[in-house]
Amino acid sequence: MDSIYKEEIIDHYKNPRNFGVLDAPDVHVQANNPLCGDKLSMDLHLKDGVVEDVRFNGRGCAISQASASMLTEEMVGKSLDELAKTTREDILQNLGIEVSYARMKCALLSLGLLRSALVEAGVALDFEEE
Ligand code: FES
Question: Which residues of 44-74 are buried (b: 16+ CB within 10 A; e: fewer)?
Answer without folding.
Answer: bbbeeebbebbbbbbebbbbbbbbbbbbbeb
